[in-house]
């Protein structure tokens, strides 16, 4: 499975492409950070982020896009910019029919380090080790984008199985309700 990992942001937006193989085998194909100047108009910054993400999607043809879910930050302005950047990337993926998954920072940290409270240095070290990179990806946004793609490669099969199980359970519940309704009709006749 080819996954595009995105660490959204307006000042720095990390983008990565990872191929997931059998088991937990993952290979990094590309990673970069899109930068926009703080003095640029918001709409122009979002356009730059969107253009870069669209180019990556068209070039690398990912099967899924994994974006960090904005949870809560002390700086509301930063949180808004992060959410907006993630939104334009999700929109670009949706226009191409590419499924989008949002993962929380703690889910990503737990997936790559085993600790949902790991710090950035631990995440970067594990990403470097998991991917067998010669040097740690820099800046941290690049490492975070790779971590998101790895997380999705490893979590997607489980999430898919859970979705199928929920759908199967809902179908069985629907059929059971139909049988009950038919039995009730038969009794009242």
Automatic annotation (TrEMBL):
<feature type="active site">
    <location>
        <position position="141"/>
    </location>
</feature>
<feature type="binding site">
    <location>
        <position position="7"/>
    </location>
    <ligand>
        <name>Mg(2+) 1</name>
    </ligand>
</feature>
<dbReference type="GO" id="GO:0006281">
    <property type="term" value="P:DNA repair"/>
</dbReference>
<dbReference type="GO" id="GO:0048476">
    <property type="term" value="C:Holliday junction resolvase complex"/>
</dbReference>
<dbReference type="GO" id="GO:0006310">
    <property type="term" value="P:DNA recombination"/>
</dbReference>
<dbReference type="Pfam" id="PF02075">
    <property type="entry name" value="RuvC"/>
</dbReference>
<keyword id="KW-0540">Nuclease</keyword>
<keyword id="KW-0460">Magnesium</keyword>
<dbReference type="InterPro" id="IPR002176">
    <property type="entry name" value="X-over_junc_endoDNase_RuvC"/>
</dbReference>
<feature type="active site">
    <location>
        <position position="7"/>
    </location>
</feature>
<feature type="binding site">
    <location>
        <position position="68"/>
    </location>
    <ligand>
        <name>Mg(2+) 2</name>
    </ligand>
</feature>
<keyword id="KW-0227">DNA damage</keyword>
<dbReference type="GO" id="GO:0000287">
    <property type="term" value="F:magnesium ion binding"/>
</dbReference>
<dbReference type="GO" id="GO:0005737">
    <property type="term" value="C:cytoplasm"/>
</dbReference>
<dbReference type="InterPro" id="IPR020563">
    <property type="entry name" value="X-over_junc_endoDNase_Mg_BS"/>
</dbReference>
<protein>
    <recommendedName>
        <fullName>Crossover junction endodeoxyribonuclease RuvC</fullName>
        <ecNumber>3.1.21.10</ecNumber>
    </recommendedName>
</protein>
<keyword id="KW-0238">DNA-binding</keyword>
<feature type="binding site">
    <location>
        <position position="141"/>
    </location>
    <ligand>
        <name>Mg(2+) 1</name>
    </ligand>
</feature>
<keyword id="KW-0234">DNA repair</keyword>
<dbReference type="GO" id="GO:0003677">
    <property type="term" value="F:DNA binding"/>
</dbReference>
<keyword id="KW-0963">Cytoplasm</keyword>
<feature type="active site">
    <location>
        <position position="68"/>
    </location>
</feature>
<comment type="subunit">
    <text>Homodimer which binds Holliday junction (HJ) DNA. The HJ becomes 2-fold symmetrical on binding to RuvC with unstacked arms; it has a different conformation from HJ DNA in complex with RuvA. In the full resolvosome a probable DNA-RuvA(4)-RuvB(12)-RuvC(2) complex forms which resolves the HJ.</text>
</comment>
<keyword id="KW-0255">Endonuclease</keyword>
<dbReference type="InterPro" id="IPR012337">
    <property type="entry name" value="RNaseH-like_sf"/>
</dbReference>
<comment type="similarity">
    <text>Belongs to the RuvC family.</text>
</comment>
<dbReference type="GO" id="GO:0008821">
    <property type="term" value="F:crossover junction DNA endonuclease activity"/>
</dbReference>
<comment type="function">
    <text>The RuvA-RuvB-RuvC complex processes Holliday junction (HJ) DNA during genetic recombination and DNA repair. Endonuclease that resolves HJ intermediates. Cleaves cruciform DNA by making single-stranded nicks across the HJ at symmetrical positions within the homologous arms, yielding a 5'-phosphate and a 3'-hydroxyl group; requires a central core of homology in the junction. The consensus cleavage sequence is 5'-(A/T)TT(C/G)-3'. Cleavage occurs on the 3'-side of the TT dinucleotide at the point of strand exchange.</text>
</comment>
<keyword id="KW-0479">Metal-binding</keyword>
<keyword id="KW-0378">Hydrolase</keyword>
<dbReference type="InterPro" id="IPR036397">
    <property type="entry name" value="RNaseH_sf"/>
</dbReference>
<keyword id="KW-0233">DNA recombination</keyword>
């Amino acid at each position: 499975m080819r996954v595009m990992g995105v660490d959204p942001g307006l000042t720095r937006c990390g983008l990565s492409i990872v191929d997931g193989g059998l088991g937990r085998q993952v290979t990094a194909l590309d990673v970069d950070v899109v930068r926009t100047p703080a003095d640029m108009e918001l709409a122009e910054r979002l356009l730059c982020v969107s253009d870069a993400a669209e180019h990556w999607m068209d070039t690398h043809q990912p099967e899924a896009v994994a974006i960090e879910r904005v949870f809560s930050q002390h700086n509301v302005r930063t949180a808004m910019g992060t959410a907006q950047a993630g939104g334009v990337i999700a929109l670009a993926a949706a226009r191409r029919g590419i499924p989008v998954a949002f993962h929380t920072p703690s889910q990503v940290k737990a997936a790559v380090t085993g600790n949902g409270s790991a710090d950035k240095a631990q995440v970067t070290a594990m990403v470097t080790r998991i991917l067998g990179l010669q040097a740690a990806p820099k800046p941290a946004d690049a490492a975070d984008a790779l971590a998101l793609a790895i997380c999705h490669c490893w979590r997607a099969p489980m999430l898919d199985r859970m979705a199928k199980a929920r759908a199967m359970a809902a179908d069985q519940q629907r059929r059971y309700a139909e049988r009950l309704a038919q039995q009730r009709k038969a009794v009242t006749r």
